[in-house]
Write a structure and sequence with these properties.
The protein has helices at residues 16-27, 65-73, 87-96; strands at residues 5-12, 30-37, 42-49, 52-59, 76-83, 106-107, 112-117, 127-132. An 8-stranded mixed β-sheet has the order 2-3-4-1-5-8-7-6. It contains 3 helices and 8 strands. The protein is an alpha+beta fold.
Length: 133
Protein backbone atom coordinates (compact mmCIF):
# COMPACT_ATOMS: atom_id res chain seq x y z
CA UNK A 1 0.00 0.00 0.00
CA UNK A 2 1.36 3.40 -0.97
CA UNK A 3 -0.69 6.04 0.83
CA UNK A 4 -0.49 9.65 -0.23
CA UNK A 5 -0.21 10.49 3.45
CA UNK A 6 -2.28 10.72 6.58
CA UNK A 7 -5.60 12.29 5.64
CA UNK A 8 -6.78 12.89 9.22
CA UNK A 9 -6.74 11.73 12.81
CA UNK A 10 -10.16 10.81 14.19
CA UNK A 11 -10.90 11.83 17.78
CA UNK A 12 -13.92 10.65 19.75
CA UNK A 13 -15.43 13.39 21.93
CA UNK A 14 -18.34 13.65 24.36
CA UNK A 15 -19.32 17.17 23.28
CA UNK A 16 -18.56 18.33 19.74
CA UNK A 17 -19.18 22.03 20.43
CA UNK A 18 -16.89 22.06 23.46
CA UNK A 19 -14.19 20.17 21.56
CA UNK A 20 -14.44 22.58 18.62
CA UNK A 21 -13.95 25.52 20.96
CA UNK A 22 -10.91 23.85 22.53
CA UNK A 23 -9.24 23.03 19.19
CA UNK A 24 -9.94 26.54 17.85
CA UNK A 25 -8.62 28.23 21.02
CA UNK A 26 -5.56 26.06 21.59
CA UNK A 27 -4.47 25.21 18.05
CA UNK A 28 -6.08 27.82 15.80
CA UNK A 29 -8.11 25.10 14.10
CA UNK A 30 -10.50 26.12 11.33
CA UNK A 31 -13.70 24.20 10.68
CA UNK A 32 -13.54 22.72 7.19
CA UNK A 33 -16.81 20.71 7.27
CA UNK A 34 -19.47 19.93 9.83
CA UNK A 35 -22.28 17.37 9.53
CA UNK A 36 -24.67 15.06 11.33
CA UNK A 37 -24.67 11.61 9.76
CA UNK A 38 -27.47 9.52 11.17
CA UNK A 39 -26.55 6.25 9.46
CA UNK A 40 -23.06 6.45 10.98
CA UNK A 41 -24.36 7.65 14.33
CA UNK A 42 -22.21 10.78 14.62
CA UNK A 43 -22.07 14.52 14.61
CA UNK A 44 -18.71 15.33 13.11
CA UNK A 45 -16.43 18.20 12.23
CA UNK A 46 -13.33 18.22 10.08
CA UNK A 47 -10.77 20.76 11.27
CA UNK A 48 -7.76 22.11 9.42
CA UNK A 49 -4.76 22.66 11.64
CA UNK A 50 -1.96 23.97 9.49
CA UNK A 51 -1.46 21.44 6.70
CA UNK A 52 -3.06 18.68 8.81
CA UNK A 53 -6.59 17.64 9.59
CA UNK A 54 -8.41 16.36 12.69
CA UNK A 55 -11.91 14.84 12.57
CA UNK A 56 -13.92 15.22 15.78
CA UNK A 57 -16.65 12.61 16.29
CA UNK A 58 -19.52 12.91 18.80
CA UNK A 59 -21.86 9.90 19.02
CA UNK A 60 -25.58 10.37 18.48
CA UNK A 61 -26.22 7.63 21.02
CA UNK A 62 -24.59 5.05 23.26
CA UNK A 63 -25.29 2.18 20.83
CA UNK A 64 -23.20 3.53 17.95
CA UNK A 65 -19.59 2.66 17.12
CA UNK A 66 -18.27 5.93 18.57
CA UNK A 67 -20.68 5.69 21.52
CA UNK A 68 -19.38 2.22 22.37
CA UNK A 69 -15.80 3.43 21.94
CA UNK A 70 -16.40 6.28 24.42
CA UNK A 71 -18.06 3.93 26.90
CA UNK A 72 -15.13 1.52 26.87
CA UNK A 73 -12.16 3.87 26.39
CA UNK A 74 -13.31 7.42 27.01
CA UNK A 75 -12.58 10.42 24.81
CA UNK A 76 -9.46 10.37 22.69
CA UNK A 77 -7.81 9.07 19.58
CA UNK A 78 -10.26 6.89 17.64
CA UNK A 79 -8.55 6.18 14.28
CA UNK A 80 -5.90 7.15 11.75
CA UNK A 81 -7.04 7.72 8.16
CA UNK A 82 -4.67 7.14 5.25
CA UNK A 83 -5.45 8.74 1.88
CA UNK A 84 -5.00 6.52 -1.18
CA UNK A 85 -5.56 7.00 -4.90
CA UNK A 86 -7.52 3.76 -5.47
CA UNK A 87 -9.48 2.43 -2.52
CA UNK A 88 -10.49 -0.89 -4.11
CA UNK A 89 -6.93 -1.73 -5.19
CA UNK A 90 -5.60 -0.74 -1.77
CA UNK A 91 -8.09 -2.97 0.03
CA UNK A 92 -7.09 -5.89 -2.18
CA UNK A 93 -3.42 -5.25 -1.37
CA UNK A 94 -4.15 -5.01 2.36
CA UNK A 95 -6.20 -8.24 2.37
CA UNK A 96 -3.49 -10.04 0.37
CA UNK A 97 -0.95 -8.85 2.94
CA UNK A 98 -3.03 -10.36 5.76
CA UNK A 99 -5.03 -7.37 7.04
CA UNK A 100 -8.47 -8.05 8.50
CA UNK A 101 -10.85 -5.65 6.73
CA UNK A 102 -13.89 -4.49 8.70
CA UNK A 103 -16.02 -3.38 5.79
CA UNK A 104 -16.21 -2.70 2.06
CA UNK A 105 -15.87 0.72 0.45
CA UNK A 106 -18.74 3.01 1.37
CA UNK A 107 -19.58 6.67 1.48
CA UNK A 108 -17.89 8.33 4.43
CA UNK A 109 -18.04 11.77 5.91
CA UNK A 110 -17.45 14.88 3.84
CA UNK A 111 -17.56 13.18 0.44
CA UNK A 112 -14.88 10.57 1.13
CA UNK A 113 -15.03 6.92 0.09
CA UNK A 114 -13.85 4.89 3.10
CA UNK A 115 -13.18 1.43 4.53
CA UNK A 116 -11.72 0.34 7.86
CA UNK A 117 -8.98 -2.11 8.82
CA UNK A 118 -9.40 -3.95 12.12
CA UNK A 119 -7.15 -2.69 14.93
CA UNK A 120 -5.81 -6.20 15.53
CA UNK A 121 -4.14 -5.98 12.11
CA UNK A 122 -2.42 -2.68 12.92
CA UNK A 123 -1.08 -3.15 16.46
CA UNK A 124 -4.22 -1.90 18.17
CA UNK A 125 -4.94 1.13 15.97
CA UNK A 126 -8.21 1.35 14.05
CA UNK A 127 -7.14 2.39 10.56
CA UNK A 128 -9.31 4.00 7.91
CA UNK A 129 -8.37 4.04 4.25
CA UNK A 130 -9.91 6.96 2.35
CA UNK A 131 -10.11 8.14 -1.22
CA UNK A 132 -11.21 11.60 -2.20
CA UNK A 133 -14.05 10.83 -4.50
Amino acid sequence: MRPRGIHHLGVAVDDLDAALETYERLFGAEVEHRATVGDQGVRAASLRIGAGRVELLEPLGADTPVGRFLASRGPGMHHVAYEVADLDATLTELADAGADLIDVPRAGLFGLEVAFVHPDSVHGVLSEVVSVG
